[in-house]
Amino acid sequence: MEKIQVSCEMEVTLKMIGGKCKPLILERLISDGTHRFGELQRAIPQLSPRTLTNQLRELEADGLVQRTVYPEVPPRVEYAITEKGRSLEPLLELMCQWGAQHLDERFTLTNPQCSQ
Predict the structure, then answer these.
(1) Contacts of 9-17 spanning 24+ positions with Cβ under 8 A
(2) Quick one: pLDDT at residue 62?
(3) How much is the pTM?
(4) Residue 116 — very low, low, confident or very high, per pLDDT cuts 50/70/90?
(5) Could you tell me the CA-to-CA distances from 81 to 2, 8, 24, 59, 98 in Å, in that order?
(6) Rounded to a whole number, what is the distance in angstroms from the first to the last CA of the chain?
């Protein structure tokens, strides 16, 4: 495995949770538990199926999400948070609180996802 060079510890965090809606995916799995792909897609409609697939693959590669494939026809795939992913819960809660404090007239909150 090739080492990723980072300039500081914060960059490690950003490399793992930075990306199109990764915090929203993680928050959904932490708060609601295991989800199938379609459930995640309905919960986060701003993500295209391709983008959701890519983000889930990256989260899995970083050990934040576990993907389980069941040998059924049709195949069933479920995504769950790992302990490493769950350890991000305090950080995600702080992000939600910060967003709530700085919500202004530019934003319309249509589907609150943060568990406050």
Answers:
(1) 13/91, 15/62, 16/59, 16/62, 16/64, 17/64, 17/88, 17/91
(2) 95
(3) 0.87
(4) very low
(5) 25, 25, 12, 9, 23
(6) 39
